Structures are given as C-alpha cells and as structure tokens.
Amino acid sequence: MTPLLFFVTVSLISFGAGFLGSLLGLGGGMIVVPALTLLLHIDIRLAIGASIISVIATSSGAAAAYVRDHLANIRVAMFLEIGTTSGAITGAWIAGLLHPRWLFILFGSILGYSALVMIRGRRRSREAHHSDSRLARHLRLGGSFFDDARGEEVVYEPARPVVGLFLMYIAGIVSGLLGIGSGALKVPSMDLAMELPIKVSTATSNFMIGVTAAASAGLYFARGQIDPFVTAPVALGVLAGAFAGSKTLGKISSRAVRMTFVAVLLLVSIQMLVRGVRG
Amino acid sequence: MQQSEPRWVDVALSRVLRGGVLLSTTIVALGVLLTFVHHPSYVRSEVALRQLTAPEQAFPRTVRGVLGGAEQARGQALITLGLLLLIATPVARVALSIGIFTIERDRLYTSLTTLVLVLLLLSFVVGAANAQEMPMPMPMPTPMPMPGMQMSMPMNHDAVAELLMRQASGTGMNPAAAPMQMSMTQYGNWMLMLHAQAFISDVQQSGPRGADKFFSTNWAMGMADRKLGDGHLMLRSMLSLEPLTVGKKYPELFQTGETIDGRPIFDAQHPHDFFMELAAEYARPLTAGTIGYVYAAPVGDPALGPVAYPHRASAAEIPQATLSHHFQDSTHIAGSVITLGAQNGMFGYAFSGFHGREPDENRWDIDTGRIDSWSTRVTFDPSPHWTAQLSTGHLHHPEALDPHDVQRTTASVAYSNAFSSTSLIYGHSEKNSWTAESVLHFGMNHLTGRGEVVDKDFRIKALTLGYTRDVVHGAGIGTNVTVYSIPDSAKTSYGSSPRSVYVFVRLRAGA
Fold first, then answer.
1. Which of A112, A187, B86, B290 could form a disulfide with A269 if both were Cys (CB 3.0 to 4.6 A apart)?
2. A65–B144 C-beta distance less than 8 A
C-alpha cells in the first residue's frame, strides 16, 4: 500500500465511522479504532491517539451548536470537567504503562457494553426534577431550557453532584485510556445519578468531551502517539462524516436497524477481545 | 430562570469552538497537501508507508520540534501544528469562560474554571516530562492476523481470487466447502469461467387457485478475471432466458411480489430479467489478512440477504422460487448497485447503495435508477464449512403499486460439506419469514427438502420434498411435492389441502 492509497483508505473509513457514529449516537472513536487496528493493522496506540484528536474535532463542532441553542448547562459542565480532566490525565498515564493487548481487551469490553446499552434505545425524557442538594444549590447548577416537544420552558435542579463528579472521573479515565469521548458513560451518569433531563445531559456531555479529550491528548502528543500521517485522515474523515451524518438523517430509530448495528458492534467487540487475548 | 448568561457569551463560546475547528482542519489539510507535494514518491512507493506509520518513527513531539521542522518534513510539521491548534481549541474555550465568569463577577465559577484550566495545563506538563523519561514503549510484534483458515499465512493474490470465485450472487457467498461447478479456461491474462443451469419443468397444482404450466427457469453466468495491480479485476455477466421461457409468470401457490399488467401478482412467480447481473468488481489485499473490494453493477446484487435462491448451494435441486423470496433475497436483481466491502479473516463487512425499486414488467431492459436505497451486511465464516450473515437494508419504494419504503433485515446460517448443503434463513420485510432447506448428494442421487413459514396476508406453512437422479453428468430428472398448511379462513379460496407437484429435467453446464 502506498502512502497515498493509505491516506485515501483511512479517510474513507473514518468518514464512514463518523457518519455511522453520528447516526448511532456513539461517536466516531468507537468505530474508527477497531477499523484502523483490525482492518489496517495500525498499532492500537497510534489509532487511539488519532481517535482522541477526532473526538476533539467532532465534539467541538457539535458543542458549538448546543451552546447556541442553550441546551448545554455550562455551569454543570465546568463543575464536572474537574472530574473528567483529572480522570483523563489518569487514564492517559495508565495507558502508557499497559501492554497494547490490554488496550484491545478494554476497548472490546467498552464497545460491547456500549452496544448492549444501545439495545434499550433512547431513554424517555424524565419529569423535571427538583432536588434539595445543598451543594447543587450553592453551585447554582440548576437551569432551564425550552423543550420543543412539550412547548414549554423546563426548569430543573440536579441531584447528587458529588456522585456525578466521581462518575465523571471514571468516565475521564476511560476516555483517556481508549481515546474515545465516552459519552456512553457520561450521559447515563448525568441522567441517572444527577437526574438531569436527557436533552441537557446529552448536550452537556458533548460540551465536556472536547475538554476531556484535550487533557489526554496533551499526554499522547508528548509521548509520540499522535502520528501526523495517521491522525490527519482520521480527524478530517471523522469530522466530515459526523457532519454529513448530522445533516442527512438524524438518529436512527428503527428497532431492526439498531439491533443489526448492535450485533455488528458486538461482533467487532469480540474481535477486539480475541485480538487482545491472543496478544 | 437561574441560567441567564447574556446571549453574547453563548455566541462567543460558539465562535471560538467553530473557528478553532475550521482553522485547524484547514491547516491539517494544507499540511497533507504539502506532504504529497514534497514527496512525489508517496504516490507510488510502498516502502514509505511503513516509516510513516511505524510507532517508533520520529515525528515532532514538542512544540519546538513542530515550529523548527526540517525542510523535507514541513508538511508533517504543518499537520502537527494544525492538530495542536485543534487540541488548543477546547483549552481556549475554558480560558474564555474564565474571562466571562470574571466579567460577571462570579468568583466561585472563576475559581472552578481556573482549576480546570490548571488541570489541562498540568496534563501538558506531565506529558512533556513523561516524553523525556519514557519514549514510546517497544513496538508491538508484527500484527497477528486472525486465526483460522489460511489467513495465518501472509495473504497472496490467490486469496483474492478465491474470494471473488466464492461470490455466488453479487458479493454474497456460499460456504467455502460448497461444491462449485464451473468450467474454466485461460485466455491470455484472463481466466474465463462459465456456469449455467436450466430446469425444464411441468407443474401441476390442486385447489381452486391452482394452475398448471410447462416452462423453464434458467440462467447462465460468464466471468472473466485477471490480475490488476496488486489485486484482481473480475467482470461478470449473468443472463436469463426466462422472459421467453416463462413468459409473464409461472404458477406458484401463495407467491407474491412485483406486477403483471399493472396489477400485483398473486399465486405466481415473475420471471427473472434477461440481464440478471452485469458487474465489475476489483479486490485487492489492503494489509496482511484483509482484502478490500469494490463492486459496481448497473444490474446486480447488493449486500443484502443470503445468497439468492437460484445460486444457493442448499437450493440446487429445487426449481421453484422460495415463498419468502420477497422477504429475504429479492434484491438479487437490483439497479445501480455500488458495494464496498472488506474481508478480514473470518469476518466480512459490506455496505451497498442501490436503486430500491424491483425490476419493472419489461423483462428485457436494464432498470437502473437513482441510488436511493442502502444495505449493509456482516458475515462470519468460522470454518470453510460454515457461513453466517446478518444484513439490513432500507429499500426505497420497492413495489411499484405500494408506495412506501421497506426495511429488510435478514439473518442466515449455511453449512456445506462434500455431501450436503443446508441453510437456515430468517427474513423480515414488514412481516416475518423463515426458511430451512437442505440437499443431500449420494453419488448420482440427490434428496432435497425445504420448509417455509411466511407471514403474508395470513401465515403460510409450506413443505417441499424432492428427489433428482443424474442421468448423464450434469443432466438429471427430478420431481418434488409441496404441501401447504393455511388458516381455515383461507381454505375457502384455496381448498382444504392445496398441493403442488413438479416433474423436471435439470441441466447444469460447467460441472
């Protein structure tokens, strides 16, 4: 394979990953890392480095829209970013100590978990919650947004900020370890632990992902895991694919299609696990 | 409302994010361009790639390294500069937020945000320290290809040729161990292959809606394959004389799908188009262990469903169509098909775009059209004897008289050895269908069976049992009987026990 063909192939694969990721609400990193390692036999550490950069690109692009629409809660984001960034630094640091086979195993497990979460599909929007967490009130984490579906302003007050902060630290570790946005962990944490409305959780998670990724990207860059020739097509491809995906179809809601992708992701996760176990 | 930041704050944050992404991706793209301009050999040379993607290669890892990039590495340095700007974008967003909170005199959040910024900067400091004391750990041993099959050896061109030869319908594959009957000759650089099959049948059906007919179903496939670059190019054409030898339809109780004279077909099967497939496909190894392919066909079979019944190893001795044809594999003749796929050891992935409408009533023309439908298929071949596939596709307005889109999802498992082939298939296209079919070969004798459960207007259960005896090599005579089970409500139209009996001559060329 010549460098030119490699560049074109990786760009196309990344475009597909970004496109699918945006349709499935998964994020391109989840798809692009298996594609690069299993199909093109790129060293998983370089693939993770390239993926973390693409995560920054897509989430920054998407966050721009969410901020404008007033959906992302910037205070909640700032507060939780303390957890995600310190987690990301921890994760990126651990990644440097692990043998690459463990990265395959961890990646396979997280991918499998995300696929299983997809089975349940999109959660119902919960009723506006008014908690009496003193810390939340002190931090003024509450907010409101205009819900198009209900045609009214929804006021909410998050619960359990400390639990949320801890879960974000875990999500940050996963993100730093595997070079993914780990929105699959962030959104449920905010949704279940902090009882935030799902729209706010999703938008705020997207807003935080870029900062989380930047924290580990610094370590990856310094360690030499950001190979310009691998990263350039991945970042450009995933960004273009995610953009195209968000413009064309919106999220996939058909159950049959979702189950098919769940099965595909499970297969890929098994393939990653097999690769990891066999070393 | 507690969260009442002024509008300009949102606009400013949004601008920083969007502007940062745009600026950095532009620089990255310029860097890529520059890299190829400075290194014309990258367009052709294979050696360079190994250096470019090796984990231990020396690309800039510090800001100073990026800014002082050597002349010949300017392109790469520019890419890295763009990537650093991209990393800096969220950091700038955090820094900007500090400014905003300060202006708003929000001391609590000014400090919280400053803490985030400090953590971010700390990550770069830790990283820089890290880089000096421990460079990238030892490179991984050469990548392990997937276990099983011949994939543990470095892939040669024959693996590509084998993949192409195995494709029985579009890019769909029978198990590798399924008997393959075709004659081959070498002509210059081209390998030519021919494969043809014809059934000459008489069908008698009982009941008020039963009908009788003497007709022939048939197809002939010609293939030409040659090496091209590191891969293989294959041209394939498949033709059928059924528009002539079947006419408008042949009787098949409970069968539906497509139209005749502008009305939907009931209790009959349409003939195949004269042009069943006209396709070009290029496949080549992408890396050790992975083959990539591109399939383009004005008429062809997208990556959806199991191998279509006329080409399925387990259906080799049954002349008639499956009742679940329009639930499982009816897209085997589709217009404007483009498929991209990859085979990696035991796993295969393919994605297709195509024209979703079923062929029209003019069976002699090519029904191309806008690419308005898509499908994707994943396959798993744990051994040469087994293959499993899962696929789904969105068909835009497939039936001319039924103006809506259909989501088709299919799953199937096939097994073949030298003496038998079996398939289990599930197909969903608005309603469900299940097919199990098998053929056993005892020398010149062939026993076959097919059971189907299909939900149409009502649930139909059908069981076919058949026997074929070879007379001379490739030619045989055979018979089969189909019995049906239907709900009582349908018995007024179809009679209490509808049956169908076939007597046929089977010809196979290329065996």
1. A112
2. no
